[in-house]
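We modelled the chain as a single entity of 199 amino acids. Its sequence is:
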Amino acid sequence: TDSQVNQIKENLNIPTDKKIILYAPTWRDDEFYDTGSIKFTLKLELDKLKEAISDEYIVLVRTHYFISNNLDLTPYEGFAFDVSSYNDIAELYLISDMLITDYSSVFFDFANLKRPILYYTYDLDKYEGMLRGFYIDIHEEVPGPLLFTTEEVIDSIKNIDEINDKYKEKYDKFYETYCNVDDGNASKRIVEAVWKDNL
């Protein structure tokens, strides 16, 4: 509900008059040095995003808890907010108008809302070939564009209506494949299937 959304925004102390982009990149296995220290840097260039879209949007940044302590968003105060330690990511989905991710499973959950998803896959070749690989065909199945530069991300945000139209058929297919049972009754069906004879 609107009141629930407003309460979450109030809890996060974020503006209520801007659209919200949730940026949730996946954990990468190569973000540790041999010494155990972290070499994480945010690859999405927030300075460029701020200049291009801050009149309409704010960005919530959700990184893995391993690296959240290494994230300094003070140069982007009022535009980018660190929500890495926020307990319930489902509430972040609820208040967000758009998701930017890469290979994280968050897009399976976010797709239930049927809101735009952009994929910032700047290291696609490396991730696909050297790191974890994928369980689905990222080139064919994901319901949004694969983007390789911050400039492409900005262009997609500015033209999000065209992106929605272009990926509507693919989004509908993705939703039917991965989200169609998430109708609020999944737990009920499991209970009935497992314990029906004992109820």
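As a brief sanity check on the tokenised model: The radius of gyration is 18 Å. The chain has nine helices and six strands.
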